[in-house]
Amino acid sequence: MRVVPTESNHVVRLQDMLEYVGGKTTQGVTSVITSALAGTYDPSSMTFTATSVLPDTTLGDRVLLVGQLDNTQNGIYTVTSQNTLVRASDMDTSASLVNGMIVPVSDGTRWQLSVSSTPVTLDSTSLNFSQQVTDFTKVVEVIWDITGDGSTTLFTFSHNLETDNVTHEIYDSSTGETIIAGPFVRTSPNDVSLTFGVAPATTDNFVVILRARVEA
User: What distance in Å separates the CA atoms of residue 216 and residue 66, rounded to the nearest whole number?
Assistant: First the structure.
């Protein structure tokens, strides 16, 4: 199961990152409601009030509706009470809904939006979501920051990729330029060391990236 990253040092699929930056992948949701919810939708407040308690949700959850009989009501909502959903603040404009947009789910699945016409008009355009069946053998990244102290030349990193088949990159965070520092040595499938020829100064700030193709 692929868990949606929540911490700054969690592994992220490179494809997810690129799609997010490009506006093709949204912030993830905690659950998907696939059956039609009975209730009323108020377009002025973008609020859906269900006639019964929402299934498997807690306050603050981001929920994706995909099965509404009026599919203009589908989309990403935030749970504000036991039976009330409000369109999420990052998904409550026409411009935020992009045809082909990917919605990651915390259980590891992904849903994709297709629209009946473009540009999208919120609460007017039909919003159709389908679950992606995807091979998640993708490139993932692990990132560390290095701050020099003027004396340390050897830095070690531990990750959870469980593979020796990784590539390495180091760049200067002040300039964004990739640099050549010294040899990376894989000491185990989850440990890598890096040796600088000259110890980074206290003013030096570098970023180390490990990339690997793994089964997420």
Answer: 25
Q: Are 129 and 77 in contact (CB under 8 A)?
A: no
SS3 labels along 113-152: EEECCCCCCCCCCCEEEEECCCCCEEEEEEEEEEECCCCC
Alpha carbons 139 and 215: distance in angstroms, whole number: 9
Please state the pTM of the whole predicted model: 0.56
User: How far out from the chain centre does Cα 183 lie?
Assistant: 31
Q: Under 8 Å CB-to-CB from 104, ≥6 apart: which residues?
A: 4, 16, 25, 26, 28, 29, 110
Q: Say which residue the tokens 């998640």 belong to.
A: 136
Q: Which domains does the chain have, with CATH numbers?
A: 12-131 (no CATH), 137-215 (2.60.40)
d(CA 3, CA 105): 8
> Are residues 198 and 153 in contact, defined by beta-carbon separation less than 8 angstroms?
yes
212 or 94, greater pLDDT: 94
Please check the confidence at residue 212 and state whether its pLDDT lies above 80: no
Length of the chain: 216
